[in-house]
Each structure stands twice: as structure tokens, then as C-alpha cells.
């Protein structure tokens, strides 16, 4: 059985995962109307789907442990960006925020001696290490590219490869 404080904290994380899904969906939609960004568009649609899976995993865990998972109302995400670089800076900022939230949850679970929740959250800890690494790598590549259109073309073409390569390392 979940304590009320752990249940509340997990529900806060549900909202964060749902917010991430919406943010990445908005990024995908923005990229979708930019000329030639099919790879980036696909990348963010996939990111959005992943975050929804993370949200559902939390919802199921809360309910399985005797709690009540709340489907949260969401604020409108940012829907327009000045550049691809800004989109990926926001992506990294968002992933760092999620990592910090997961770390707080792990700490709370340990403080309350809720080892089942602590164990459950270890998957999220590992996932966030991968997500931050991916976001940092993509930001580094965009920094190297600068304003070079041919570099952006190659980045867009190869973005799904970066995702696959980093998850295998």
C-alpha cells in the first residue's frame, strides 16, 4: 500500500510525464511544418510516445499498489520555436527537470522505507540517464553545426541513428 505522500508524489510525476509527452508532441508539430525536418519531426513524435508510456507505467503502478492515479489537467506547451537549436535546448532542459523530479521521488521513497517504490523507480533513473545523454549529445552536435544548412540536413537525416546508437552503448 502506498502512503499518501508517495501517492501524491507519484501523481505529480504522472503529470510531469504527461507534460513531457505534450511538449514533445508540440515540438514534433512545429518541426512538421518546417521545410525538410522529417527526421526531427519523427524523433519528437517518438519521444512523445515514449513519455506517454512512462506516464502509463506510473499510473498502473499507483493503482496496483492500492493508490489512485489521477489523470492530470495539462497546461498548453510551447508551440513555436525560433530555431531547431532552441527546440533541442528546451528538450535538454525538460529532461534535466524530469531527472531531478525522479531523484526527489527516489529520495522520498527511501526516506519512507518504501522499497517497492524505490525498486520501481530504478527503471526511471536508468531511463533518465539515457534521455539526458541523448539530449546533451544532440545539443552538442547542433552546437558544432552552428548555422550550416548542410550540417542541419545531415543532423536531420541521422537523428534517429543517434537515438539508436546511444541506447545501445
UniProtKB/TrEMBL annotation:
Its main location: cytoplasm. It catalyses: 4 Fe(2+) + O2 + 6 H2O = 4 iron(III) oxide-hydroxide + 12 H(+). Coiled coil: none annotated. Its EC number is 1.16.3.2. Fe cation binds at residues 17, 51, 54, 95, 128. GO terms for cellular component: cytoplasm. SUPFAM superfamilies: Ferritin-like. It comes from the Bacteria. InterPro entries: Ferritin, Ferritin-like, Ferritin-like_diiron, Ferritin-like_SF, Ferritin_DPS_dom, Ferritin_prok. GO terms for biological process: intracellular iron ion homeostasis; iron ion transport. GO terms for molecular function: ferric iron binding; ferrous iron binding; identical protein binding; oxidoreductase activity. Residues 1-146 form the Ferritin-like diiron domain. Iron-storage protein. Belongs to the ferritin family. Prokaryotic subfamily. This is Ferritin. It comes from Chitinophaga caeni.
